[in-house]
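Re: Re: ligand-bound prediction request (bumping)

Still looking for help on this. To restate: I need the protein modeled with nicotinamide-adenine-dinucleotide bound, output as structure tokens. Inputs repeated here so nobody has to scroll up.
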Amino acid sequence: MPTFEYAPAPESRAVVDVDSTYGLFINGDWVDGRGTAFKTVNPATEEVLADIHEASPDDVDLAVKAARTAYTRVWSRMSGADRGKYLFRIARILQERAREFAVLETLDNGKPIKETRDVDIPLAAAHFFYHAGWADKLSYAGYGPDPRPHGVVGQIIPWNFPLLMLAWKVAPALATGNTIVLKPAETTPLTALLFAEVCQQAQLPPGVVNIVTGAGDTGQAIVDHPGIDKIAFTGSTGVGKMIARSIAGTRKKATLELGGKGANIVFDDAPIDQTVEGIVRGIFFNQGHVCCAGSRLLVQETVADEVVRRLQRRLSTLRVGDPLDKNTDVGAINSRAQLDRITSLVDAGEAEGAERWDNGCALPQRGFWFRPTLFSGVTQTHRIAQEEIFGPVLSVLTFRTPQEAVAKANNTPYGLSAGIWTDKGSRILWMADQLKAGVVWANTFNQFDPTSPFGGYKESGYGREGGRHGLEAYLKGSI
Ligand code: NAD
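Reply:
Sorry for the wait, this slipped through. Here it is.
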């Protein structure tokens, strides 16, 4: 299909000052980490952005103690209305500094600027606004007349939506009166560290939010620390299971938001052009680095050829390249390790007999890239139908009846999301009732809102984030 060139439309980097080195944010101040420093790179260019200190177990101990003191002396004594004022302040600062956050997130993560600008940062601010409103209304939330916070919570987040995952965790924890030790992912620490500056700017009392950087060992030190009352983790199912094992038999609470292998189900009466856009949004948004991505397309046999043909045409128009360019649709893969994981699963798909197609676009010389890819002829037993690829790769399967669609959609160890595309409201309701997924979208996909609870079934984890349900996880008497 003929494509036409767009003139480059790069967003300026000038709004961001990246320091050469970042320490840890403990008790409202920057301190040196005692672990081994590591580097964070721009995945689109492999340029080193900054040296990041690693928090050792002793540093984590310092952070937990700071959070405990802030909890007992200040935060647990403050009224909900006053806590809410800090959240409103943080939300407004995020909005004021939105462009700076969007550019920094794109540099550190590799995702397109149009996504950080239009999705990640506005939604992060929206989470703070939403939870600010709850802070003085907790007695009316349905958790008893005087719901109490856990105390000090340890929060560990992944690299796919760095600031947004921080907001999903920090906003409800603060609104409910907990204090925090948070660890961002090792490949994307920069927006969390800029958020530490926002806490200072908002004059949040020292120790209420502490941010420690590092990889799995630092995360483990948070999980194991006896001063932590609750763990909130978002990441892979493998690490989630390790955390569940570590805290078993202790008094620590946990919420786990883990992986997924979402089914996007297309019936023959669906409006095809709209559906194709929804399928693209479902799996190629954020390079497919989305836990609830619609990575398995289940399409009714009678329209399968047409849907695949139209999808291929649409995928050929996706613009892959410089994430800072405002016309870019698909950015860089976040790390070499993730690129290797995607490549090995895609190779397995081919070896097991599925038919591989990609859009053949040119890729930049440096950095980590993967072409939008589609597999047809996929069967239930193929690894690409069972395992989370976490990249821009769609597996297409077919079905004949709604019952078969449900059986195939539920045939996965995960249960995070699903999508249904059909003209019939009754079929949507029947399907939604049968699907074992925490979120079911109808005639749309990957829509997020702070008021709407999000979470999984089975190996996708337990607990909910967002909405009234999400508050529960940060209040005593809950999971
Ligand atoms: P990961 O599990 O490797 O890492 C997640 C976080 O855990 C990182 O901060 C990492 O440093 C830390 N960590 C690693 N080992 C640890 C340990 N032993 N103890 C404590 N912390 C440890 O996952 P990832 O590759 O960063 O993220 C991708 C995964 O996250 C995917 O599986 C995706 O589906 C999932 N995810 C889920 C949701 C959700 O809401 N359900 C949202 C986003 C991502």
